[in-house]
Design goal:
The chain is mainly α. 62% of the residues lie in helices and 1% in strands.
Length: 1270
């Protein structure tokens, strides 16, 4: 009672000034403060509302509410908040008065941002009381409720922008949430304001509560929406509908005019807002998501793409809640999820690309189920194999943007990797590059982790699947990348070079890791890839020779320019002339260098700029990179410094130079040049490390290090200059035969050009002599070769000579024969007197006899080089071949010519007799099948090797060449394959006559598709090269091919049978089909629109000749010639009609090879042969039917005239022409032929990497192939 009387006295204090009773402002402030303090302490349960009515009326007086004094208004508002608390849930004011009170509250809130405000505490009190009492619910019942709500939100969001103290944010957010909850209608501007502030990109830190930096407006909107999800969801849907209505009617969405553009722009805004709303409060889109899901099936492509992208962004958005955004979406909108997944197969390429681009952000989210990962992986893999380039490119960029660890964990599988691998051969450059760089980076990541022993997380893959994936990562990827060099595309080759040195075998200062990476790379390469890798290093060897000249020219030019600058007045004409000469020489050098560079990157200009800079420091650094005697660190640092210097625009600028080159161009070109020429792999440091691995028998890389040493000896033998003594020690200590051979081969290749650096230790020389006598055949060969590199080793050679000769059955081994063969090749003088005995022994006692027991005859189908050591008898025979070949190659006098004919005849006999020259008897056991296969193979290869010697080539007839063709049709695949490889190698190098060229087409019936495909690729490559030189060698080979087919035993057998049997037509058709397969291989690889007339002319000329074997009469051989020639004519005509080519009269004249063709001199007889048709019409019909069968030819064709009807006018006058060196004569040395247009650059030229045998590599001439630009 006392308390009530006390606060009554306080509350009864006058606060309204009148004329009679004016209250000073200071006094009024004190009274209001006291009233506010008193009201704040009164409990609602203890108070009677009637006691406060008068006070409430006074507090609501305009004299207080509109008072100019801020303090008066603040204390009045504090008191009013408590009046509302005491009168709750009703208010003791009229609606208009209450509305004014709330407006005053909002005005007070405007000062909350400034904590230094003198009435800040009162304003905080007002906010707190309103929230505690929920006074804002009264607004909903006021007539101007919408205006008040708008005013409240406007005030609070402006305040948020100014910086509301963080401790007040929850109070303000609760007030706003309560207002929305109680309001019957939310004004449009308030809804717009809430959504505008809610739409903050999910990547913005404050949006996902990732930062201490606050975003008050966002927090307000989020709190309001979270507290009123259902209501706000309706308002969001309504808001988006109004946005569309504001642009254009929804019925016009299908239009393509301005209405559609406006609607689409509004739709984009809606989707953008939806994406960001989803990230924070997906429940707000409960009504909208159905519409977006329906848009996935829209007929309009742009709308489908927009919906696809939007849902993808929603799935990838970072959630501020407990579960991931993807998981929430799938559980809430299963139908939309299923439809979105199908967009990877949408009819529109743009939509498929959009889908692929959204997968990676989704994968970056933390929580994804196994099923979701599988579905995303399947869809992305499908995009990688898409028919559209844009989709494939987008998918490639998507997977490359993933960190390797994430790809391994979430996407890596055998199927996904196998989908990327084919893209390395894409015609589209960007797709190809993305795939190559992605795979190489993945390989680098895997190898790096594997060598460090770190665990790699492959996600849900099982053990078997992981094993397959690891095989792809460690082996298939490097093999695929390196084999891209076979495409012979300059840009592709440059890309392979970059990834080889930066990803496959990257720079690393740790020598152990560096060498382990190199060994692992080489170990996992297959034969084709190793050939490519070795070819890259061989290319470096050639390029270094040119770069040495470049460096010399650059140094000379820089010094010459420096001298001229110092002595401008005394500069002589000779000095200027030297500079001009240097510039001319340098131009030719640079042209040679950039010939292998891709176009469009200003290669010539960049390398020329490097030269014209006259920077001796750069020149010296370049010299360091191509010095094999420097260590790894020096080479690496030199490369690094060069690239750093040319990266500076100022350092590459030349005064007065009009051509502007960017630093990027300089870097790209010089990086490629340095990678191709520098000793990055095979430098002094690395070679020493590899030799250490080779010496360590327990090392994981012991075997592969031996192989790498062998390769280094082939490409960079000078690198062993600092390690020659170590090599000698390793040879002496070597216990393993293969290791010993590898080291001997390495030392020989080093010593033949660096004999002065060979170790001269007498014990080592004696060890070599002992190897020649007691070692294997290969050891003996290399031991003799190494000894021959020394100037004075007569003692060792005499020891070998005395220990081996004379040959005898009881002591002579294959090693002895091989040693003598090598001494013969090196023309050891003492052997001359022993030759007759030696040759008699190897021919009569080794080749013509089989000195082994029946148990030793067990052999496989074919004996490879690695198995020879186990077959001593066969090895002796093969070494005897080498001895005979070396003897002929060492011939210097014409008196020894008979040896040539006998040797050629002997090798021919081995081929003709199927590898058997041992006469059958009770004493001699027949040669086993595996031996015979190897013997006929080596006999054929020996003939090819001898054909490189001019004196031997003259004695090799066409019949002998034709016998070699039997090896290309041998029953054993290895015989066919190795014969073709030898033939291809010698023809590629032009070391044998073009008379052998037609043999490559004798693979027409080859059952092995790989071998047949390789042959066709090589022919295409050769044709491209010859075509560029306007050389018709392959075209003229058709005459020899026709002759060979006509004299083929099977063809002649079919023809003979058709003449003696009742079913003659069938046999004749079989004969022509047999011949047709050879001709089709020829036409598939040689025939083009620009040379078909020449081919038609050549086969037409055949009818003006007879077989040279019987030049006076028309025998069966000549008739068969005409039959095959007519068949070739028919096929050329068919091909021309199919392709739409025009057969024109060839303007030149060619005579056919005189060693197999004899011209018909009788005019009437020639006319008779030309006029006669040798293939009957019914046979022609059968042949066309055969060609029309699937797989028989390239394409079906329309009916054409018969050969007789299509025959053009023929020249019948026959004249002889003087023969050229190859048996051809022509009254026109060359005929200009326009090169055909191709759809792809890659088809214009192929590259063939030849894998030479070790013996052939060793016998390669020491003379360098000097370029002609000096």
């Amino acid at each position: 009672m006392v308390r009530r009387v006390a606060y009554k006295d306080v509350l009864a204090t006058p606060i309204i000034s009148t004329i009679a009773n004016t209250i000073p402002t200071k006094e009024l402030l004190l009274r209001l403060q006291k009233i506010a303090d008193t009201l704040s302490g009164i409990d609602q349960d203890d108070a009677s509302t009637e006691d406060f009515r008068a006070l409430a009326e006074n507090l609501a007086n305009k004299k207080l509410l509109a008072n100019k004094n801020v303090g008066i208004r603040s204390y009045a508002c504090c008191a009013l908040t408590d009046i509302l608390r005491l009168f709750a849930p009703d208010a003791p004011f009229e609606p208009e008065t209450l509305s004014g009170i709330f407006k005053l509250f909002f005005a007070e809130f405007a000062g909350l941002w400034n904590e230094e405000n003198p009435y800040y505490q009162q304003q905080c009190y007002i906010l707190r009381r309103i929230v505690e009492v929920r006074s804002v619910v009264l607004i909903a019942d006021l007539p101007d409720a919408e205006k008040l709500v708008s005013k409240m939100f406007e005030t609070m969001y402006v305040l948020a922008g100014k910086g509301l103290p963080s401790r007040l944010e929850p109070l303000a957010a609760e007030m706003l949430s309560e207002t929305v909850s109680e309001a019957d209608t939310i004004p449009r501007d308030v809804v717009g304001l809430i959504l505008k502030k809610l739409i903050v990109p999910a990547s913005y830190p404050v949006a996902a509560l990732k930062s201490n930096i606050g975003n008050t407006a966002f927090a307000f909107s989020l709190a309001v929406c979270q507290a009123n999800v259902d209501k706000m969801a309706r308002y969001v849907s309504q808001h988006f509908s109004e946005m569309l209505d504001a642009s254009v009617s929804a019925n016009d969405l299908g239009n393509t005019g301005k209405d559609f553009k406006a609607s689409y722009a509004a739709l984009e805004k809606i989707h953008s807002s939806s994406i960001q709303i989803w990230a924070h409060l997906p429940e707000l889109l409960s009504s909208v998501m159905g519409l977006i899901g329906d848009e996935l099936n829209s007929d309009n492509e742009k709308i489908r793409e927009l919906a696809t992208t939007s849902i993808g962004s929603m799935l990838a958005s970072e959630s501020s809640g407990q579960s991931s955004s993807t998981t929430r979406f799938i559980s809430a909108h299963k139908s939309a999820w299923a439809t979105w997944l199908k967009k990877s197969s949408d009819a529109s390429a743009g939509i498929r690309a959009a889908w692929a681009s959204n997968v990676v952000p989704i994968l970056s989210t933390q929580t994804l189920t196994t099923d979701v990962l599988r579905e995303l992986c399947d869809g992305l893999t499908k995009c990688l194999m898409d028919s559209n380039e844009k989709v494939r490119l987008t998918a490639c960029k998507a997977i490359r943007s993933l960190p390797p660890s994430m790809f391994m964990n979430k996407l890596c599988s055998e199927h996904s990797l196998n989908s990327v691998l084919p893209l390395c051969r894409e015609k589209h450059v960007d797709i190809r590059n993305e795939a190559i760089y992605f795979l190489s980076e993945l390989y680098n990541y895997y190898l790096e982790r594997d060598l460090q022993g770190k665990v790699i997380d492959f996600g849900v893959l099982g053990e078997m699947e992981i094993a397959k994936v690891k095989t792809i990562l460690s082996s298939t990827i490097p093999n695929t990348i390196l084999q891209l060099n076979y495409v012979n595309d300059k840009l592709l080759t440059a890309t392979v070079d970059i990834v080889l040195f930066e990803q496959l075998a990257p720079f690393n200062d740790d020598s152990s890791i560096r060498m382990s990476r190199l060994c692992l790379l080489y170990e996992n390469l297959d034969q084709r890839s190793r050939t490519t890798f070795n070819a890259i290093n061989s290319r470096q060897k050639k390029t270094v020779e040119v770069m040495l000249k470049f460096v010399d020219f650059a140094e000379e030019y820089a010094l010459e320019s420096s001298l001229q600058a110092e002595n401008k007045e005394n500069s002589s004409e000779s000095s200027k002339a030297r500079k001009e000469k240097l510039l001319v020489s340098m131009e030719r050098v640079i042209k040679w260098i950039v010939a292998s560079f891709p176009g469009g990157i200003h290669s010539y200009e960049c390398i020329e700029r490097f030269f014209l800079l006259k920077n001796l420091r750069l020149i010296n650094l370049l010299k360091n990179t191509i010095n094999s005697q420097l260590d790894y660190k020096s080479v690496k640092n030199s490369i690094k410094e060069i690239l750093m210097k040319v990266a500076d625009e100022k350092s590459i600028k030349i005064d007065g130079e009009s051509t502007r080159l960017s630093a990027a161009d300089m870097i790209s070109n010089l990086k490629l040049l340095l990678y191709r020429t520098s000793f990055i792999f095979y430098n002094k440091t690395n070679i020493g490390q590899i030799m250490e691995l080779c010496m360590d028998q327990e090392s994981r890389f012991h075997k592969v290090s031996n192989e790498i040493i062998t390769e280094i000896s082939n490409t960079s033998p000078a690198g062993f200059k600092s390690h020659a003594k170590t090599l000698a020690t390793m040879i002496v200590q070597a216990k393993d035969i293969e290791n010993s051979i590898s080291l001997l081969r390495t030392l020989y290749r080093f010593g033949k050009k660096n004999s002065a650096s060979l170790p001269s230790d007498e014990a080592f020389l004696d060890h070599l002599a002992e190897l020649a006598v007691t070692g294997t055949a290969t050891q003996a060969r290399y031991a003799v070769k190494i000894l021959h590199c020394y100037e004075d080793v007569d003692g060792q050679l005499k020891h070998i000579y005395d220990a081996i000769l004379p040959f005898s059955t009881d002591k002579t081994t294959s090693a002895h024969i091989c040693a003598v063969a090598q001494m013969t090749r090196l023309a050891y003088p003492a052997l001359a007197s022993q030759w007759n005995a030696v040759s008699h022994y190897v021919i009569e006692e080794v080749l013509r006899k089989n000195l082994f027991s029946m148990e030793e005859t067990m052999s496989g189908e074919f004996i490879s080089d690695s198995e020879l050591q186990e077959h001593e008898v066969l090895n002796r025979k093969l070494c005897s071949f080498k001895l005979l070949v070396n003897k002929i190659r060492s011939i210097r006098e014409s008196t020894e010519a008979p040896i040539v004919e006998k040797t050629v005849k002997l090798f021919s006999a081995f081929i003709s007799n199927n590898g058997e020259v041992v006469k059958s008897s009770e004493e001699l056991i027949p040669t086993p099948p595996g031996y015979r296969a190897r013997l006929r193979l080596d006999a054929g290869r020996s003939l090819l090797k001898l054909a490189q010697v001019p004196v031997v080539d003259a004695t090799i007839s066409h019949d002998t060449i034709w016998k070699i063709s039997r090896l290309l049709r041998d029953e054993t695949l290895q015989v066919r394959k190795l014969t073709f490889e030898s033939l291809r190698k010698y023809l590629s190098k032009n070391t044998i006559s073009e008379r052998f060229l037609f043999l490559v087409f004798m693979l027409g019936h080859e059952p092995d598709e790989v071998l047949k495909s390789d042959a066709k690729k090589w022919i295409l490559s050769q044709h491209s090269k010859l075509e560029a030189k306007n050389n018709h060698m392959l075209e003229t080979a058709l005459a020899r091919l026709v002759f060979g087919i006509a004299n083929d035993g099977i063809f002649k057998q079919f023809i003979d049978e058709q003449e003696t049997t009742e079913v003659s037509a069938t046999k004749e058709v079989e004969a022509y089909i047999y011949a047709l397969n050879y001709i089709l291989v020829y036409l598939d690889t040689v025939a083009k629109e620009n040379n078909c007339s020449l081919l038609y002319y050549i086969v037409s000329r055949v009818k003006q000749y007879r077989a040279v074997s019987n030049p006076d009469t028309l025998d069966d051989d000549s008739v068969n010639l005409y039959r095959v020639a007519e068949l070739a004519q028919l096929m050329i005509k068919e091909l021309a009609d199919t392709k739409g080519w025009t057969l024109q009269t060839w303007p030149g004249k060619l005579n056919l090879p005189s060693d197999i063709y004899a011209m018909i001199t009788d005019y009437d007889e020639a006319l008779s042969v030309v006029s006669r048709i040798y293939i009957p019409d019914d046979v022609q019909v059968e042949l066309r039917n055969y060609l029309a069968k699937p797989g028989a030819t390239r394409a079906k064709r329309k009916p054409v005239q018969k050969l007789a009807q299509a025959r053009g006018t023929k020249k019948t006058k026959v004249q002889r022409k003087a023969k050229d060196s190859e048996g051809y004569a022509s009254d026109q040395e060359s005929v200009a032929v326009t090169r055909p247009r191709r759809a792809s650059r890659r088809a214009t030229k192929k590259v063939v990497y030849e894998e030479e045998s070790e013996e052939e590599l060793d016998e390669r001439s020491d003379v360098s192939d000097d370029s002609d630009f000096v």
